[in-house]
From TrEMBL:
Catalytic reaction annotation: Hydrolysis of alkylated DNA, releasing 3-methyladenine
InterPro entries, A to Z: Adenine_glyco (IPR005019), DNA-3mA_glycosylase (IPR052891), DNA_glycosylase (IPR011257), Tag (IPR004597)
PANTHER family given in the database record: DNA-3-METHYLADENINE GLYCOSYLASE 1, DNA-3-METHYLADENINE GLYCOSYLASE I
Molecular function via GO: DNA-3-methyladenine glycosylase activity; metal ion binding
Classification of source organism: Bacteria, Bacillati, Bacillota, Bacilli, Bacillales
Organism whose genome encodes this protein: Peribacillus asahii
Keyword Transit peptide among UniProt keywords: no
EC number: 3.2.2.20
Role description: Hydrolysis of the deoxyribose N-glycosidic bond to excise 3-methyladenine from the damaged DNA polymer formed by alkylation lesions.
Full protein name: DNA-3-methyladenine glycosylase I
Root EC class: hydrolase
Keywords: DNA damage, DNA repair, Hydrolase, Metal-binding, Zinc
GO biological process, one term: base-excision repair
Keyword ATP-binding: no
SUPFAM superfamilies reported in the protein's UniProt record: DNA-glycosylase
Length: 187
């Protein structure tokens, strides 16, 4: 039997697959990086499981996270999102996706890609941690603090340090699989 990080306390296939194939795996695709930033913001105050179950609904509701389309959203479109029971219907979180799409496109213009910008926080190389247990894994660090402050300065919303650290884990900027987990790079 494969050992996984202790936070995977279920055999739910969607959750297990997320842990095994996505969490901690480096992502460089701008659209996926934008999607994950928006989903991590949607998670604020909730569990990742809640968001993960709604991810396909989010993709459909937000045009596959195509920022160029999102910045064109009308008041009617935003109201339909607020009424969409397939996503988290928090008005501030929904509006933040539009705000973040604008900031994302500006970053792409300035840096050539969002990937270049965001990966610059870790010197373009994943950080591999060696935590014994899930209790050792932090919820934020100096890098997520710096990232949060810069993202806010650049116009992003729902990007506090804890959200940024969770984002870093989700897109593989930091690998926090515990040492006993079969996904840890030492295995």
């Amino acid at each position: 039997m494969m050992k996984r990080c202790m936070w995977v306390k279920t055999t739910e296939p969607l959750y297990v697959e997320y842990h095994d194939k996505e969490w901690g795996v480096p992502v460089y695709d701008d659209r996926i990086l934008f999607e994950m930033l928006c989903l991590e913001g949607a998670q604020a105050g909730l569990s990742w499981w809640t968001v993960l179950q709604k991810r396909e609904n989010y993709r459909n509701a937000f045009d596959q996270f195509e920022a160029e389309k999102i910045i064109q959203y009308t008041d009617e479109k935003l109201q339909s999102l607020i009424e969409n029971q397939g996503i988290i219907r928090n008005k501030m979180k929904i509006y933040s996706v539009v705000t973040n799409a604008k900031a994302f496109l500006k970053i792409q213009q300035e840096y050539g890609s969002f990937s270049s910008y965001i990966w610059g926080f870790v010197d373009n190389k994943p950080i591999i941690n060696n935590w014994e247990t899930v209790k050792d894994v932090p919820t934020s660090n100096e890098i997520s603090d710096k990232m949060s402050k810069q993202l806010k300065r650049d116009g992003f919303k729902f990007v506090g340090s804890t959200i940024c650290y969770s984002y870093m884990q989700a897109v593989g900027m930091v690998n926090d699989h515990t040492l006993e987990c079969f996904c840890h790079p030492s295995r």
